[in-house]
Structure formats: C-alpha cells, structure tokens
Amino acid sequence: MKHLNIALVAHDGRKDELLSWVKFNATMLSKHNLFATGTTGRLISELPVVVDGKETFPFKGKVTRLLSGPLGGDQQIGAMIAERKIDMLIFFWDPMSAQPHDVDVKALLRLATLYNVPTAINRSTADFMISSTLMANADYKPVVRDYTTYIERTLK
Prior knowledge:
Elements (H helix, E strand, L loop, with lengths): L4 E6 L4 H10 L1 H4 L3 E4 L1 H8 L3 E3 L2 E3 L6 E3 L7 H10 L5 E5 L9 H13 L4 E2 L2 H8 L17 H4 L5
Parallel strand pairs: 1-2, 1-6, 2-5, 6-7
Antiparallel strand pairs: 3-4
Helix pairs in contact: 4-5
C-alpha cells in the first residue's frame, strides 16, 4: 500500500465531526502520513481510540502539526500542495460561520483544485474518498494540467 500524505483541517464548528471521522477511520489513517493545522493536529494527536477493548493513542507523535489556520496553517498546506507534497485534503469547513481567514481558505481550495488534489469538504465525501480502491493503488497519479504555456507566456 502506498503511504499517502493526507492534510486534515477543520474549522472550530466542525472539529468534533472531523475527530469522529478520524476515530472511525483510525486503522486506515494510521497507515498514512498526516498533516494538520494547529489545534486540529493537537486534537488528533490526543485522540483516544479503543482497539480490542484497550484505549490507545494511534496518532500520538504521528501528526505533523502546522500553524493554526488563521495564523498561516492553511497557506502552509497550500504551499505543500503546490510542491506536490500533499496527496489528499480533508477539510471540514463550516459554511455557517464567517471565518477571519476566508481568503486563505479560498486560496487553499483553489490550489487543491489547480493541482487536482482529491478534496473532501464534508464527511460524506471524506467517506467515499477513504473507502476508494484508489487509496491502495500505488500507481495512481492525479492528472495535473500542464501550465507550461501559462508560465512561458510573454506579457505586453
């Protein structure tokens, strides 16, 4: 199985939902490299999971924590996407609350789209993505549009 680099992000109003999803998918997620924005990363690292009747902490020390989203964490993940270091983005965003860093969120989602990174913005989509047979396919590479013409254009 290929080890994917998975970014996990959640607005405050969706952190509990993301933690519930991570707990439910702990076995699968523990096989991959996890990156998360500040508080979300801390909460995932401290998340207890019961396995065979015993409480364990499968993500302790296994989540690369970035800055808090409003302090630049969203942009750090965006930079990793642009550098092709993120394979999947799970972002439980809260559409009911205004965010002080909405422009950063928009930029992150734009980069994920630009580089064709599989992105889930809610639990249903995250469930479909993590259960996809493509998760285990080491040969799968998302098709990224060739932007050479754009990069090499001449400005007048």
